[in-house]
């Protein structure tokens, strides 16, 4: 039995669609199909954890229905480093100048606005998931836990799982490089330890 970490299926935000808030981005038609297809790759779940964002619930829903479960919500949502208010009604390509400016700073403590978070905040949320999983790991020796999260959250989780390290500008830059050159694909998953 195992702990599976799974990125959500394709969302409107992934295909340069206009979005209203970080949390409300829905799956595309293809995303719903990917969520259905994911069922063939995953064993029976004993417990499911999702982020508070709609796209993780929509990705997990076929599994929840199949295995007759209700998801637990944890703060494993996407890295919201840009202001939600500023991004409202924009597309990925419209946000690109803001994205580029944020990553050019490489400041782990920079916060875009009161409704955004710093890279250090993301790091602390990822570390909190490690703490949770280490505490719960014995429970999943004979059960399957499915965790549905997001590309950036899972990218940092995977990096720290491979090489634990402190938060730093170097980690932030390596993280950005991996996001651009080795992104975790929609519905891609890996097993914890």
Number of domains: 1
Biggest β-sheet description = 5 strands, mixed
Along the chain, the helix and strand elements come as EHEHEHHHEHHE
| CATH arch. level architecture | 3-Layer(aba) Sandwich
What's the level 1 CATH class? Answer: Alpha Beta
Describe the global form.
Answer: globular
- SS field, number of helical segments: 7
Q: What is the fold named in CATH at topology level?
A: Rossmann fold
Helix percent reads 40-55%
The overall average pLDDT, rounded, is 96
Poorly predicted sequence stretches spanning 5 or more consecutive residues? none
Number of strands: 5
Please name the fourth-level CATH homologous superfamily.
Answer: Phosphoglycerate mutase-like
Strand content: 5-15%
Enumerate the strands of the largest sheet in spatial order, edge to edge or round the barrel. Answer: 3-2-4-1-5
Rg on CA atoms, Å: 16 Å
End-to-end distance, in Å?
11 Å
SSE topology sketch:
Elements: E1 3-7, H1 29-38, E2 47-50, H2 54-67, E3 72-73, H3 84-87, H4 92-105, H5 119-136, E4 145-149, H6 151-162, H7 169-181, E5 189-191
Parallel strand pairs: 1-4, 2-3, 2-4
Antiparallel strand pairs: 1-5
What does this molecule look like?
This is Histidine phosphatase family protein. Helix 1 (29-38) runs parallel beside helix 2 (54-67) and helix 5 (119-136) packs across helix 6. This protein has a single domain (3-191), classed as Rossmann fold, CATH 3.40.50. Strands 3-2-4-1-5 form a five-stranded mixed beta sheet. By secondary structure, it is of the alpha/beta class. It has seven helices and five strands.
């Amino acid at each position: 039995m195992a702990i599976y970490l799974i990125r959500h299926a394709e969302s409107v935000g992934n295909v340069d669609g206009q979005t209203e808030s970080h949390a409300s981005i829905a799956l595309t038609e293809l995303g719903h199909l990917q969520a259905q297809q994911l069922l063939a790759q995953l064993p029976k779940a004993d417990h499911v954890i999702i982020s508070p964002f709609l796209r993780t619930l929509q990705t997990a829903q076929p599994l929840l229905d199949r295995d007759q479960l209700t998801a637990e919500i944890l703060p494993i949502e996407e890295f919201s480093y840009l202001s939600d208010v500023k991004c409202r009604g924009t597309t990925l390509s419209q946000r690109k100048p803001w994205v580029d400016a944020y990553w050019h700073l490489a400041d782990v403590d920079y916060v875009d606005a009161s409704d955004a978070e710093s890279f250090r905040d993301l790091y602390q949320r990822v570390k909190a998931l490690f703490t949770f999983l280490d505490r719960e790991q014995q429970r999943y020796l004979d059960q399957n836990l499915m965790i549905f999260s997001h590309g950036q959250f899972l990218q940092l989780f995977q990096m720290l799982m491979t090489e634990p390290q402190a938060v730093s500008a170097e980690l932030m830059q390596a993280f950005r490089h991996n996001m651009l050159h080795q992104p975790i694909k929609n519905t891609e998953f890996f097993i914890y330890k």
